[in-house]
Amino acid sequence: MSALLLMGGRVIDAGNRFDATADVLVKDGKIAAIGPEAGAQAPEGTERMDVKGLVVCPGLIDMHVHLREPGQAAKETIATGTAAAARGGLTSVVCMPNTAPVIDHSGGVALIQNLAAEQGLVNLFITGAITKNIAGEELAPIGSLKKAGVVAITDDGHCPQNNDLMRRALEYAKMFNLPVLDHCQDYSLVSDGVMHEGYWSTVLGLRGWPSAGEEMIVARNILLAETTGGRVHCQHLSAAGSVKLLREAKKRGVPISGEACPHHFTLTDSAVAGSDKFWSADGRNIYGFESAGAPQAAWPAYDTNFKMNPPLRSAKDRDAILGGLQDGTIEILCSDHAPHCGYEKEVEFDYAPFGITGLETELALALMQLYHTKRLGLPELIAKFTVGPAELLGLKKGTLSVGADADITVFDPEREWVFERKETASKSTNSPFYGWKMKGKAVATIVAGEKVWGNGVN
Amino acid sequence: MPWHRKHLLDIESLSADEIVTVLDTARAFKAVGERAIKKVPALRGKTVVNLFVEPSTRTRISFELAEQRLSADIINFSAEASSFKKGETLKDTARNLEALNADFIIIRHSASGAPHFLARVLKGSVINAGDGAHEHPTQALLDAFTIREKKGKIEGLRVTILGDILYSRVARSDIWALTKLGAQVTLCGPSTLVPRVFEQMGCRVTYDLDEAIRDADIINLLRIQHERQRKTMFPSLGEYSSLFGLDQKRLARTKPDALIMHPGPINRGIEIDSEIADCGRSLILEQVTNGLAVRMAVLFLVNGGKGPQEVEG
Fold it and tell me: Cβ B201–A300 below 8 Å, yes or no?
């Protein structure tokens, strides 16, 4: 029987169109009251937290993370991954099924559920594979996965190349009301590409991963969503053409959506050539570039922490992703948190695995690139971390309605800080953003009424 | 301009003055190579590792001889007969070599950026002997040296690079070196292997061979690299040869003093007619001779030498 009163914060609950200074009372893990009466209803012994000047919003959801369990615990575990999530202000994360073994059977779902119950610091939702062993050949037992509790299916990291198979997956998953999340990559066009195909791949002599390799599959998914009426969601969009296709399809009412990750709307392919090249050109458009003082972060050419899939693209693509977020074409923000061990990344660029960590920086980078640059207001930004994923996946989360689970994020949009390796909760440190000056930080992460992370509030 | 770099990783980051310093130093070493006693003590007591993760003949031999002429101790390492086959990483391999107190690592690798990676993890000097499709700096330096020696200058010359540009590290290094030194560089070859994006590096792209070679002072032919092509980039070697191969008929339409270069190994009858490779206008073997002097100069400079005035006369 615990109670918590958050006093005097700016409460932004996008789903309920609420944005005002108010108190929030939490009792027994649920939202009990919001507004002037909240304080009066607080029972004796209620813990009080002064959150004046801070934003109080429904707990943020990251619907695209890799927690690496089972099978790859050297990179990350459910304990460390959810700790990183809490530190980043996330109260729920959705994990991808490309573990070892792949989550293509109900036993795998149960295993993760058990680990999450024992060790998870935040809520964990699970996705299952579209195809057996994410090999793109035969459908996984989607019905059993649904029964076991998955919230979506995806072959993330891989992309079903067989269009008929994808069509059947959409038709079949529709029966269970399960959205299909797709990592959009045409293998014949992308081949062994390791970075965006353009000027910088030419100069660096690295194999190109052309934008058309993503756009081709986004277009395919639009056609199949239209054909089947199945719900398709395009993961981690990186290319301008993808945003254009999605915008046009949504206008026609096609059941399709998209998500964007901070690295794709902050960095560009010039970053692979090193910080000098980046800051002297594309880096100038980043929020905070002009705020002189401490030197900007520095990194060398061919730094494998700038290698991810899909790759960092041109400044034009970055602008298109920002534009898609601004006009609502892209309604979901996420990190694609992809931890890898130091020794796996400390190799030749060609041989390094794709992916970077992102749970601890996504809120700050989203605030910098969207809110502080005046592309989005706070309610619209918060919606992309709450209502957006909750609606797509059918989660009873992302709201501060009375009676809802008391998952709450308290953040300071103005707090300036530097992302430091030593403060990382993730087991891995493959982030390109160490040393970056950030603006905006979670100061309390509350899951079911319990503060699981706090920094500078009491 | 005195040299002060510890590594030679690429040409892109060098200034024109630095390139000229290497060329001038190489000229001094070429003179040394023409003496009866060809050996100097510049690297006596120093250890050089030739880390050739990708096979190479002429570059490896050239570096080895350069090291011997500078009196260095040499370790030769090839990927075929090493722990690479057992899955040891490049970092671990290199650190083991460093534990033997190697002062210089000469690296040839199929992955672009591998020399940059090594330079970050090791204390010694790293010299790039060709990394993937990225750069081959000593090749560009020896090309520039050869052109300057033959034509007396580089600025204002028209240099056409012909062939497989996309996968060529030589092309990239040549483009940087020659444009920095004031040459006008034209690229020519099939559009799949010579994408327009190269124009952003400061050169001209054309798909008309006759136009590309008509006014050229230097024609640099590149080998079609079958091993680097991830898919069919042109229909056949026969079609390539008929469209872009340098034959006698085409050579007759070039300027009479235009010179022919090729970094080797040559595919006789594909990018170049066999007789042209051996004719008086071909600089192919002089490039090899000059490569030795250039590599001696590079080793001498990264070892702390400042310039040609310090080479023993």
Answer: no
